[in-house]
Specification:
globular; 4-stranded parallel beta sheet; 19 strands; alpha/beta; single chain; 8-stranded mixed beta sheet; 12 helices
Length: 414
């Protein structure tokens, strides 16, 4: 039976405006058609949205379900990540999936998780046994021996080791490859506080292997040296991008490489609520200006920017920060939706409310073109034609040190 969501204002991602009084006709998990106001409605289950606003389902291009919004230092022998059992990490992944869907995030790019948890979560959310966003996964990421995040990664040190590792991950069924290619912040006498860790040849090897089977490569990269290597090697997505220059941004635009700035994550990781210590906070604050200049360079060059939260960021805090740095409300909506779909090369089925695409959309109380904060006010989430009440996705009475819910950090952090 068809579902008809009527009496609503539907966001047009091409014109970047709302279509007043429109109706969305869905069948199974797809949108059949968008009807203009006053059009005769087909037979089916009618859901009157009472004049509310509908935007496409949000897409988070940098998710870590197992250690999302985790309190305490992540790494080292006393790191909070390593004090948690695999069973507890799986519970965290389920909680993260519910949390994201409650926010209106209907697709996530899981950018690195241990063991078989992401594979199990991808299957569970696809089957509907766990309510959550649809998932694309990278499995474990790759680093050099002793490199950034090596505790969570497959360590490789030569092009041949990279090739074998990437092929093994592809054999296991990943949707994309993730590389952790730089370490930061580090103490230096002068210049950028970054160590470039993965050689251009190794990055290129990963790209060749992934692209050969039509898979993407997403890379953690900061510093002009590692950014240059990544761009020349032809990665698809660059995460963070601190110290991006105008010239490198222009090269990114020419190669159609997407930037995921993760501004919110690198702000909030220093916030006392996450308990990572004064030294951690002080060091990461030194990176803030380089993130701001990177976003400015990317916007100037016309680089596609999409939204990713990383481990501690908040989706709507990220959008607020992009808005504060010059991105219009309409462009923020694009960054949260269609840009993510284009980055994943899935814009034929995701990213906008259009006939033929998945029935993924979010119903809002207010118009986000007038107030961007309206994006955080979902009253109904539809994913693949299934309706979810955000209030029923809340995980009640979770200890505050187990999972930090969204909060207003104050102007200093925006």
């Amino acid at each position: 039976m068809k579902q008809v969501f009527c009496n609503t204002n539907v966001y047009d991602s091409v014109e970047k405006r709302f279509l007043p009084g429109a109706s969305i006709v869905c069948e199974d998990d797809r949108i059949c058609e968008i009807l203009p106001g006053g059009a005769q409605l087909p037979e089916g289950q009618c859901v009157d949205l009472g004049g509310k606003w509908v935007v496409p389902g949000f897409i988070n291009l940098h998710e870590h379900q197992t250690y999302k919004r985790l309190v305490g230092p992540l790494f080292g022998p006393k790191g909070s990540f390593f004090q948690i059992t695999e069973a507890a990490l799986t519970q965290r992944a389920v909680r993260s999936a519910l949390y994201s869907l409650r926010q209106g995030i209907t697709t996530v790019f899981e950018a690195g998780a241990p063991g078989n948890i992401p594979y199990a979560m991808r299957q569970a959310t696809a089957e509907g046994t766990v309510p959550g966003p649809r998932m694309l996964i990278t499995g474990q990421a790759f680093s050099i021996t002793g490199g950034h995040g090596c505790e969570l990664c497959i360590e490789v040190d030569t092009p041949d080791e990279m090739r074998r590792g990437v092929r093994t991950s592809l054999k296991k069924g990943v949707d994309a490859i993730k590389l952790l290619a730089s370490e930061e912040p580090v103490k230096v006498a002068s210049g950028e506080p970054v160590i470039a860790e993965i050689s251009e040849e190794m990055v290129r090897t990963a790209v060749e292997e992934a692209h050969n089977v039509h898979k993407l490569v997403s890379i953690h990269a900061m510093g002009s040296e590692q950014l240059g290597r990544s761009i020349r090697a032809g990665v698809d997505i660059i995460n963070h991008g601190a110290f991006l220059t105008d010239g490198l941004a222009q090269a990114m635009a020419e190669k159609n490489i997407t930037l995921i700035p993760t501004l919110s994550s690198y702000r909030l990781t220093a916030h006392p609520n996450f308990g990572r210590g004064e030294e951690w906070s002080r060091k990461h604050r030194t990176l803030w200006p380089a993130f701001d200049t990177a976003v400015a360079a990317a916007m100037k060059a016309g680089v596609r920017i999409a939204v990713g939260t990383d481990s501690v960021g908040d989706f709507f805090h990220e959008l607020e920060m992009l808005h504060n740095r010059g991105m219009s409300c309409a462009d923020c909506i694009q960054a949260a939706t269609l840009n993510g779909a284009e980055a994943l090369k899935l814009d034929d089925c995701l990213g906008s409310v259009e006939a033929g695409k998945y029935a993924d959309f979010v119903v809002l109380k207010q118009n986000p073109l007038e107030d961007l904060n309206a994006l955080g006010g979902a009253v109904l989430v539809v994913k693949g034609g299934r309706q979810y009440d955000p209030a029923r996705l809340a995980w009640q009475n979770v200890p505050p040190n187990a999972f930090v819910e969204a909060f207003d950090p104050g102007e200093e952090w925006k």
